[in-house]
Write a structure and sequence with these properties.
single chain; 388 residues; alpha/beta; three-stranded mixed sheet; binds iron/sulfur cluster
């Protein structure tokens, strides 16, 4: 049985009369699917189930000869990826951008709820611990971007960054791919909207403030909780909530329009903090706000359940029941239009609370669109005829 099947079975036990969460937890612990704490220190996921496209599911088990003690901890590794193009296009009717750049695959921040986790399966890797530790960087991204922007038929519209993986995750400190991309965008007066959980974005205030002066840049800080302990357990390597609030303040003081994204809101885990987060963000200079309900596509559902069973066993059935009440009885419904905010009375209540709080605080609905009329095509060496 695969790790995710084991979790599904435990989920069934948790809701079964006469069984309950205690039995469900025991079932998961005895199955051996959970990676030992000393191997996954500072990581979000508790398991490392093989990718969903793999024909064989592999997981470690103790054969009685203490072989598990020899297994090393999950260390962060970075592999260079050499794509042919770097701008990703989408036609989703419920996202406010049609193009984006992801300088990295995988994300060391390790948020257990991250809806980008299942993309690691396309690399033959796990959406669990592999997603947080086996990362891919695209060091050639700036050159590729320049080339794509120079195409004769390129039509300029806001570029989104941070919509899949975080462009300011810890490896950006050394790889600096995000900064190089921003340098290209600034050169061409190309608009950019960034979403991040990292205070590292303040390193690029020089570029972003120059772009913002021309109406070409906005930044959204994602804040899920003001409770440091909760934040550490569900997004272990992301900067603390207070650092993120301070980043909002610094960006705002530099004249860069800043939004706060409360994403994701998880019923009975962090949803009670909604108004406090908005309030704190506004006090630090946020101008507009958005929220997204927890999304559990593919492997994320099992990863989140394992986390919930480990950290909040007493709330397990309550949280899952609320989630299902907002997803038509399922863990997740990918329907366009409702996937971001859910359906039903509890989802309605969340949206209503958000509307009331933002109106009271004077926070506008989050925007992504920026001006694109200043765009000038970049010069790419070797692609233009020289006059002399
Ligand atoms: S910071 Fe964003 S991309 Fe990174 S793990 Fe968290 S949710 Fe995913």
């Amino acid at each position: 049985m695969s790790a995710l099947e084991t979790i599904e079975q435990a989920d069934g036990l948790a809701f079964q009369r006469g069984a309950g969460v205690a039995k469900a937890r025991t079932a998961v612990e005895r199955s051996g699917i959970r990676i030992a704490d000393n191997r996954r220190r500072g990581r979000g996921a508790g398991i490392n189930q093989s990718g969903r496209f793999e024909t064989v599911s592999r997981h470690v088990f103790d054969d009685g000869w203490q072989t598990l003690e020899e297994l090393p901890p999950f260390k962060t590794q970075v592999t260079v990826e050499e794509p042919k193009t770097v701008i990703a296009r989408n036609q989703s009717p419920d996202v406010p951008f049609d193009r984006s750049i992801n300088p990295y695959r995988g994300c060391e921040h390790g948020c257990v709820y991250c809806f980008a986790r299942p993309t690691h399966s396309f690399m033959g890797l796990s959406a669990g611990l592999d997603f947080e530790s086996k990362l891919f960087a695209k060091p050639d991204a700036a050159r590729l971007l320049r080339k794509e922007l120079a195409a004769r038929d390129y039509e300029c519209k806001s570029m989104a960054m941070g919509t899949n993986t975080d462009p300011y995750q810890p490896i950006e400190r050394t790889w600096r791919v995000t900064r190089e991309i921003l340098e290209v965008l600034e050169d061409c007066d190309h608009p950019v909207g960034i979403v991040t959980k990292s205070a590292l974005v303040t390193r690029d205030i020089d570029i972003l403030s120059r772009m913002a002066k021309k109406g070409l840049a906005r930044v959204a800080l994602s804040i899920t909780s003001l409770d440091r302990r909760l934040s550490r357990s569900m997004e272990p390597r992301a900067p603390t909530p207070s650092l993120r609030l301070d980043a909002i303040r610094q960006l705002s003081e530099a004249g860069i329009p800043v939004s706060v994204m409360v994403a994701p809101l998880i019923p009975a885990i962090n949803d009670h903090e909604l108004e406090r987060i908005l309030d704190a963000a506004k006090a630090n200079g946020a101008q507009d706000a958005g929220f997204v309900l927890l999304r559990l596509p593919h492997e994320v559902s099992g990863l989140f359940k394992e986390w919930l069973m480990r950290h909040y066993p007493d709330r397990y059935t309550h949280v899952l029941s609320l989630i299902r009440s907002m997803r038509g009885g399922k863990d997740y419904d990918a329907q366009w239009g409702t996937r971001m905010r859910g359906v039903g009375p509890y989802a309605w209540q969340m949206s209503r609370r958000f509307d009331i709080a933002t109106r009271k605080l004077g926070l506008a609905p989050m925007r992504m669109a920026l001006r694109s009329d200043l765009f000038k095509s970049p010069n790419v060496p070797g692609t233009q005829l020289s006059l002399f």
